[in-house]
Amino acid sequence: MSSWVYVGLFFLVGLIIPAGAISAAWLLRPRKPNPIKQMTYECGIETVGDSWVQFKVQYYIFALVFLVFDVETVFLFPWAVKLGSLGMFAVIEGIIFILILIAGLAYAWRKGMLEWV
Amino acid sequence: MTVDQIIFLIAAASTLFAAFSVVTTGNLIRAAFWLIGALFGVAVIFAILHASFLAVVQVVVYVGAIAILFIFAVMLTRKDMRDQGAQLNRNWKFGAFLSALVFAGLFFLLRGWGGVSKTAAAFPSDFDAVAELGGALVSPDAYVLPFEVASVLLVAALVGAVYVAYNHK
Amino acid sequence: MDFLKDPLQIAANWLFGILAGWGVADLWAQVLIGFLGIFLLIALLMVVDILLVWVERKVVSRFQSRIGPNRVGPFGLIQPFADIIKLLIKEDTTPEGADRALYNLAPVLSMMSVLILWAVVPLAPTILGVDLNIGVLYIIGAGAIGTLSIIMAGWSSNNKYSLLGAFREVAVMLSFEIPMLTMMLIPTIFAGSMGIAAITQAQDVWFFFLAPLAVIIFLIAAIAELGRAPFDMGEAESELISGYNIEYSGMKFGMFYAGELLHAFTFGSFWAILFFGGYRFFGLEKVSAFLAIAVLLFKAFIGYWIIMWVKYTLLRIRIDHMLIFNWKFLTPVAFTLLMVTAFMNALLAASPTWLYVGGMFLSNVLVAWISLELARFAAHKEREKTENTLTADARR
User: Fold this and answer.
1) Cβ–Cβ gap A10/C118 under 8 Å
2) Does C2 share its domain with C105?
3) CA-based nearest residue in chain B for residue C174
4) Are residues C114 and C54 in the same domain?
5) Interface mutation target, options C32, C35, C137, chain B, most CBs of B under 10 Å
6) Is there a single domain that holds both residue C23 and residue C111?
7) What is the pTM of this model?
8) Span C189-219, pLDDT tens digits
9) Which residues form the domain of C185?
10) Phi, psi dihedral angles at C211 (to 5 degrees)
11) pLDDT reported for residue C162
12) Same structural domain for residues C17 and C103?
């Protein structure tokens, strides 16, 4: 039996318990909806415009930079596991791998892509 | 049917359903969330195949990074992109025919292959897939060059992203 | 005495015997026992979570020279239960234009992403949910689900402030995940395994002494990951009212709130497990499993208390400062530390323990000192530049 079955059980119970708590509240709570109550909450005044606001491109850039480094670190995990028994050669390889990526970070920095405003 | 098969069938069915919903739903953000469901189903299938590392990487990279990137990209667009236009264009009959053809071809190919009905050999008890992968990634007679090239590729992606955004500014 | 050492195994064997007596197949008996064990663990976590509400309120009031809840029950201990009743019977409104399915799913996912983290937490040498050999990455994967729940809540509420809060929060969480992942590589290098149990077992010397700088960077990244002050972009009350959970009320809000508290406690325990030996404390864990759990909880509470201390001491940082701090300082320092650690680990592999620990500690201090000096230098230059432009403006 794979240990993932237990992880699956964890997911299941982790879903059931919060869902159960919310359902219990659903059974107990009062229901008196009216149009004013169901307006979106915005400092007590009526909402102006749509909630689909356009975001600045910076969010996308940071997500892209994050993606690159995320993939990189995932590559490094197997390397780190085996590192103790591989000696200096593997260490140097890993350091080269990281340095190439840091060069990428430096490039983005120089181009001003890491500025938020 | 064994437990593994039942879990596989459930996971595969929900993956396919989620993938189908991605292309049929009209709302872009909802499509992104369905896509996350499909990617998660693939992670479950990796877990059934005892590929723990790949299963987790699937969640970390695809759900944790790429899906978020999609949602950010969708939010960069104007609202006009939402809920407009028909879901099908006039090429849909041709597309359906092509996909049915590919499915039939794959089906006949795989029917002739005996690997489907075989049971996989059990892993030795001291087998550590992650450590093996780590060893293979840095050993000179295995994959050290692809490992370093992957780093260069990632930098190329970063530079490309910077260039695209730089023009945008 | 066996029961004290390994209570779970004995209880499981006992149950297994009973179920076998009833004629239940072995496989289903195992699954059923696993289910019961997991249910018990998660139910216990929810009880701890309820107590955390009280702990948090008591601690924050002490930081702010108040007494905190003290009316309901001794020391106000019954207060959180009164809160739960309030949450249960509170009317729950769904804003118009909300995406109902996602709106209702988000709080459940938020809580689930925290609960499933405990699958890999080794509570004692013999009590451990699942010994995954990729435990460290599993933590990040569960965090990805948490990120998703925030963006889900923010988008489905059909509220500008929710969406803004969710997007800012997610941008911060993503950014700080890089130093966090990098700092998780360091215990992995020392232990030679990604399994959380193996990392605990490998800590004959606490990894704190091998990588003190990693401990600090991990704490900063964890606080950002939790979305707590000074990194509470998602809920910035004074700017975004309440961020991504603004439209939620009743038990759905309760799930976000409880999830946040338990998340903080969980990261306190991960901090303890990765760097402070987890349940290990001078061989105490070998005496009894219950003592081991007590040690782990004690360490986790210290971690949780430090996270609270930071939260109630520092002010919120602006989002651009936060991201610049991460990408221009924390991430380069984290990668430098990783390279230095990997190098020193290989260099000192054959040396005696005292030299190994001393060398590691000193290299960490050196990296910290150099990076702080560089940051100071950059800050001075920046200030001079600003002052020069200011005086030039004044002369004109």
Assistant:
1) yes
2) no
3) B65
4) no
5) C137
6) no
7) 0.88
8) 888 888 888 888 888 888 888 888 989 999 9
9) 98-331
10) -145, 70
11) 83
12) no
pLDDT higher than 80, residue C49:
yes
How far is Cα C187 from Cα A75, in angstroms, rounded to an integer? Answer: 16
CATH number for B1-84: choose from 1.20.1290.10, 1.20.120.1200, 1.25.40.10, 3.40.50.11310.
1.20.120.1200
Question: C133–B52: do the CB atoms touch at under 8 Å?
Answer: yes
Q: Do A96 and B137 touch (CB under 8 A)?
A: no
Residue-wise pLDDT for A42-68, tens only, equals: 766 666 666 667 777 778 888 888 888
The ipTM estimated for the assembled molecules is 0.86
Cβ neighbours of B59 in C, within 8 Å: 141, 144-145
Query: Could you report the per-residue pLDDT of A15-28, keeping only the tens digit for each?
Result: 888 888 888 888 88
H and E: helices and strands count for chain B: 7, 0
pLDDT tens digit sequence for C249-308: 888 888 888 888 899 999 999 998 888 887 878 777 777 778 888 888 888 889 899 988
Q: Rounded to an integer, what distance in angstroms lies between the CA atom of residue A65 and that of residue A113?
A: 10
Distance CA C126, CA B75 (A): 48
Q: How far is C305 from chain A (nearest CA, A)?
A: 25
CA torsion sign for B80, B83, B85, B91 is positive
Q: Which of C102, C138, C155 sits opposite B56 (nearest CB)?
A: C138
CATH placement of domain A4-110: 1.20.58.1610
Residue C326 to residues A62, A114, C143, C224: CA-CA distances in angstroms?
11, 10, 18, 10
C151 and C48 together in one domain = no
**Beta-carbon pairs below 8 A across chains A and B:** 139
- Domain spans of chain A? 4-110
Structural domain ending residue among the three candidates C281, C312, C331: C331
Residues of C in contact with A12 (CB under 8 A): 35
Same domain? C151 vs C277: yes
Chains contacting A (3 or more CB pairs within 8 Å) = B, C
Q: How close is the nearest chain B Cα to the Cα of C192, in Å?
A: 9
* C137–B36 CB contact, under 8 Å: no
Chain A residues lying within 8 Å of C160, measured CB to CB: 42, 47, 49, 51, 53
Same domain flag for C192 and C305: yes
Point out the residue among C133, C170, C174 whose CB comes nearest to the CB of B130.
C133
**CB distance from B51 to chain A under 8 Å?**
no
Residue type, C367: V
Query: How many domains in chain C?
Result: 2
Q: Which two tokens stand for residue B49?
A: 């195949």
Do C42 and C118 lie in one domain? The reply is no
Residue C236's pLDDT is what?
65
Query: Which of C331, C347, C380 finishes a domain?
Result: C331
Compare CB distances from B152 to A52, A86, A100 and report the shortest one's residue. Answer: A100
Can you tell me the distance from the alpha carbon of A94 to that of B138, in angstroms, rounded to the nearest whole number?
A: 8
